Amino acid sequence: MAVGVISQPACMHQPAVFGTRDDFRYFIDAAHAAGLNVILDWVPGHFPTDDFALAEFDGTNLYEHSDPREGYHQDWNTLIYNYGRREVSNFLVGNALYWIERFGIDALRVDAGGVNDLSRLQP
């Protein structure tokens, strides 16, 4: 059974609908105790333009393309990661491992909408 949550898990916090980090761990542990695996819908293809997101994270276009024609997803009003940057690949690989190692997520369903080429995404 899927639990639907609209969120952006390519960040370092769990969806607030699950409560605190401890609550989220408890949810995952309870699912495991019931014989269920937990699959996180992980989105490394694009990220929100909201103030809480990664856009101009350090005052520069650290995670996104500087040219919006290369990195803006018009359908979702989101920014597309600049996979040519080491910071992006380090962040995304580290983020995937964070969910697996910190919370015990069993698998990631990788939503790659808007991604054309992941061949440059190397840890």
Automatic annotation (TrEMBL):
Gene Ontology process terms (BP): glycogen biosynthetic process
E.C. number(s) listed in UniProt: 2.4.1.18
Keywords: Carbohydrate metabolism, Glycosyltransferase, Transferase
GO cellular component annotations of the record: cytosol
Organism (species): Escherichia coli
Name of protein: 1,4-alpha-glucan-branching protein
Enzyme class, broadest EC rank: transferase
Top-level division of the source organism's lineage: Bacteria
GO MF annotation terms: 1,4-alpha-glucan branching enzyme activity
